[in-house]
Description:
The chain is of the alpha+beta class. It has one helix and five strands. Strand 2 (about 50-60) and strand 3 (about 65-70) form a beta hairpin. The radius of gyration is 21 Å and the shape is rod-shaped. It starts with a helix and ends in an 8-residue tail after the last strand.
Amino acid sequence: xxxxxxFLPLILIFAIMYFLLIRPQQKKLKEHQxxxxxxRRGDQVVTQGGLIGKVSKVKDDNEIEVELSENVRVRxxxxxxxxxxxxxxxxxxx
Length: 94
């Protein structure tokens, strides 16, 4: 019984750390992954470097092409997109 009483504070500390730090971080990571997966042509995005541009092409699983200004396009890794400013609506099938 004494052994359980000694480990009880450690277990409580771990539980508190889980609910205050680990769980919110995992939730934030999942939301970021959903945002990145939903990127499409025409979305206005902000990169982690602070560059604002419009998605001109979604190349493959982890890369997109962002147009920063007229005729200035850069290739960006999808995971470095920090925020989507404006979202374009998908084209309706005719």
